[in-house]
């Protein structure tokens, strides 16, 4: 894991001091809310329906037990004893007092954490593969690349007042667990003649105009990566639309220019930027990469798992994934208990996961964009003990990637932008499909719910997506099918007229019944949908 | 350093269009949607480039400033308009050396803002040595 040196500490401390001063001036009435807003947003502080919401950055989703315990401490001391893990691998707190924000940021800084650029029209927290450093299919650990980008993008003087927010993801495996091509910049680390470089996909995103990012450059050498990113951003900062907030993301610029013309402009800018000497030497990458060295895992550890406890065996089959080192496994902790709020965890649960990471996972945890937690490096021989502890804390729901492993935004229960509630819909769907046998029969089925067109719940990328809208003052839910945020990336298609809260649950049941009737051997829901198309599903839903 | 500008006796900055069509002006004003690179052939005869910030949220002027400094412009580079204390440190990093805020700023706050950051992660147009270079000498 990356450890701060004196420079990193000094930067975060300066930010805490700056924001404390800004809060003081705001509370004293020296600056207006309009002037304060972009400043608090760059420190992750939103004004929501009921209170301030603070979003804390978890860079590329990686944290250690000390940091995880601090997240529990903040929930306990400053919030209502829980936190909400988000689709950007961050955590947010829903009930924060403005006057507490500086103290919270100080607490975070003491464990090398912050809320820098978790909001605002700047480069946001960099996301990555939650199995980085552990996945059997990665070519390298993507996190050193992400950390290089984190430092470059932190307090970037030119790109802090962009037309709109800007999200970057970095992966290094062919299996895409980070929805890479639905980011403003998606980077895949690839191998060319034994050298690693960055493939740049630019201009993806969700929101009201979802787009899959086109490939802009197939191989950017490490030595050029920051210059190339700088060129991509400069073209956007200069020419991205600022006349309409809904057309201000980079995807609209690239859509209007065309990928070829955008690429031409970036290449021209890159030639110039490259001459400025802004790329760090290889030694800096090596310094960072050394801190992500694999933990000392014993490859001769026993590979067999004692499956004699049937409940444990069910959990192993669903929530445990292959590790690159023999005798070890990746544990996925579901934060989606049936009837619970997707992504929420209590202080006690957060502490428990920290304890398990410290004892069994080389002190590492990950947050996933699907709002779950990962223990990346667990010995297979320890899996039973981990499961027992999780089970006792209500954290052993064996539903990873099943229909009840739902991504849902906070929706109208918290969010000032929402048109409809997301949480109750998620709870009703999970309850309707609570029978585990039925869920397993349906297999991999990614269901994602957004409470408004901004698509924080990734509904466009759901095998089944739900979008809550406001129709003449009542909440209405549109259903879409066939999206994916993975390497088979695609955008969902709307089925037809929307439903009320119970109606959408019924419609999903008709959709899944139709899938079971239509599927051929080994087909996932999304495969069947792609093969047979919308018509049979539409027929099943609307008759 | 920051100076509050008093424009008494100063040659008024002309618009980009006017500048490009009249060869004797030495001060030009650049709006957010105007291409800073149009000035590159003329930098050696310019004494002042004023970059307009009609709204502080419109960040195009930061790129304009860097482009001008990167092209070797050594004259006065002024941020004018909705220039607030909380943006001034970033503006300085992008190459601005004077500031003409519409609403006068508290000079103590400005000094504090400019002194806030001990170092910087990335290279920009202010000549500051980035942290990665400090780490590796």
Describe this structure in words.
The complex is a heterodimer of chains A (543) and B (137). Chain A is an alpha+beta fold and 543 residues long. In chain A, 37% of the residues lie in helices and 18% in strands. Chain A has 17 helices and 20 strands. Chain A has helices at 6-27, 33-41, 65-78, 101-109, 143-153, 225-239, 250-257, 259-274, 282-291, 310-319, 347-360, 383-392, 423-432, 436-442, 501-518, 525-532, 535-542; strands at 45-47, 52-56, 62-64, 82-85, 91-96, 127-128, 168-171, 185-192, 195-202, 215-221, 320-322, 328-333, 344-346, 364-367, 373-379, 407-408, 447-450, 464-471, 474-481, 493-494. In chain A, the strands form four sheets. Chain A has a five-stranded antiparallel β-sheet. In chain A, helix 1 (6-27) runs antiparallel to helix 4 (101-109), helix 5 packs across helix 9 and helix 15 (501-518) crosses helix 16 (525-532). The radius of gyration of chain A is 23 Å and the shape is globular. In chain B, strands 1-2-3-4-5 form a five-stranded parallel β-sheet. Chain B is built from five helices and five strands, in the order E-H-E-E-H-E-H-E-H-H. In chain B, strand 1 (14-15), helix 1 and strand 2 form a beta-alpha-beta unit. By secondary structure, chain B is of the alpha/beta class. Chain B has helices at residues 16-21, 60-70, 88-93, 107-115, 131-136; strands at 14-15, 27-30, 48-53, 76-81, 98-101. The model of chain B has no long low-confidence stretch (mean pLDDT 92). Chain B is globular. The chains are: A alpha+beta (543), B alpha/beta (137). At the A-B interface, helix 1, helix 2, helix 6 and helix 9 of A face helix 2, helix 3 and helix 5 of B.
């Amino acid at each position: 894991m990356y450890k701060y040196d004196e420079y990193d500490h000094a930067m975060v401390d300066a930010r805490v001091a700056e924001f404390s001063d800004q809060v003081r001036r705001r509370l004293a009435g020296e600056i207006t809310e309009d002037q304060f807003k972009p400043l608090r947003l760059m420190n992750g502080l939103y004004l929501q329906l009921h209170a301030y919401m603070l979003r804390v950055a978890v860079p590329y989703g990686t944290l250690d037990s000390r940091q995880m315990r601090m997240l529990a401490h903040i929930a306990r001391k400053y919030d209502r004893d829980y936190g909400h893990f988000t689709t950007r691998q961050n955590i947010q707190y829903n009930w924060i007092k403005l006057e507490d924000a500086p103290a919270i940021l100080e607490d975070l800084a003491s464990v090398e954490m912050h809320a820098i650029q978790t909001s605002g029209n700047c480069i946001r927290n960099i996301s990555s593969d939650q199995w980085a450093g552990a996945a059997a299919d990665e070519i390298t650990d993507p996190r050193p690349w992400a950390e290089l980008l984190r430092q470059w993008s932190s307090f970037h003087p030119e790109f802090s007042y962009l037309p709109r927010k800007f999200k970057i993801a970095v992966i290094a495996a062919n299996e895409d667990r980070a929805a890479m091509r639905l980011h403003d910049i998606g980077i895949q680390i690839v191998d060319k003649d034994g050298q690693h470089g960055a493939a740049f996909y630019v201009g993806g995103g969700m929101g009201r105009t979802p787009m899959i990012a086109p490939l802009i450059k197939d191989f950017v050498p490490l030595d050029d990566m920051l210059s190339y990113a700088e060129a991509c951003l400069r073209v956007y900062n200069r020419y991205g639309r600022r006349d309409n907030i809904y057309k201000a993301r980079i995807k609209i610029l690239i859509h209007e220019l065309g990928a070829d013309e955008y690429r031409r402009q970036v290449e021209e800018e890159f030639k110039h930027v490259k001459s400025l000497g802004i790329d760090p030497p290889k030694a800096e990458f090596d310094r960072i990469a050394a801190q992500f060295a694999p933990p000392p895992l014993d490859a001769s550890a026993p590979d067999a798992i004692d499956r004699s406890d049937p409940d444990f065996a069910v959990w192993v089959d669903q929530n445990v994934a292959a590790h690159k080192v023999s005798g070890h496994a990746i544990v996925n902790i579901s934060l989606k208990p049936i009837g619970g709020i997707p992504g929420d965890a209590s202080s006690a649960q957060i502490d428990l996961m920290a304890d398990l990471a410290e004892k069994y996972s080389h002190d590492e945890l990950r947050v996933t964009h699907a709002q779950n937690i990962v223990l990346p490096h667990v010995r297979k021989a320890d899996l039973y003990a981990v499961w027992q502890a999780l089970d006792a804390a209500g954290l052993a729901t064996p539903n990873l990637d099943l229909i009840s492993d739902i991504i849902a935004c906070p929706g109208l229960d918290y969010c000032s932008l929402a048109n409809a509630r997301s949480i109750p819909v998620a709870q009703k769907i999970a309850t309707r499909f609570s029978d585990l046998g039925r869920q397993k029969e349906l297999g991999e089925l990614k269901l994602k719910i957004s409470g408004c067109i901004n698509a924080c719940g990734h509904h466009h990328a759901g095998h089944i997506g739900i979008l809550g809208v406001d129709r003449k003052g009542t909440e209405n839910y549109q259903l879409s099918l066939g999206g994916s945020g993975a390497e088979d990336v695609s955008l969902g298609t709307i089925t037809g007229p929307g439903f009320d809260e119970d109606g959408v649950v019924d419609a999903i049941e008709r959709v899944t019944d139709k899938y079971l009737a239509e599927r051929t051997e080994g087909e996932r829901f999304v495969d069947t949908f792609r093969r047979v198309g919308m018509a049979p599903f539409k027929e099943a839903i609307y008759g | 350093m920051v100076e509050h500008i008093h424009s008494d006796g100063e040659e008024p900055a002309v618009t980009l269009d006017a500048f490009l069509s009249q060869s004797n002006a030495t001060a030009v004003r650049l709006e957010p949607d105007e291409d800073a690179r149009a000035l590159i052939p003329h930098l050696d005869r310019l004494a002042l480039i004023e970059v307009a910030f009609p709204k502080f949220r419109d960040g195009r002027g930061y790129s304009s400033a860097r482009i001008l400094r990167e092209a070797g412009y050594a004259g006065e580079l002024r941020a004018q308009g909705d220039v607030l204390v909380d943006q001034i440190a970033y503006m300085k990093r992008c190459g601005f050396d004077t500031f003409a805020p519409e609403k006068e700023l508290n000079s103590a706050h400005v000094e504090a803002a400019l002194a806030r950051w001990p170092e910087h992660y990335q290279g920009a147009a202010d000549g500051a040595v980035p942290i990665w270079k400090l780490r590796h000498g």
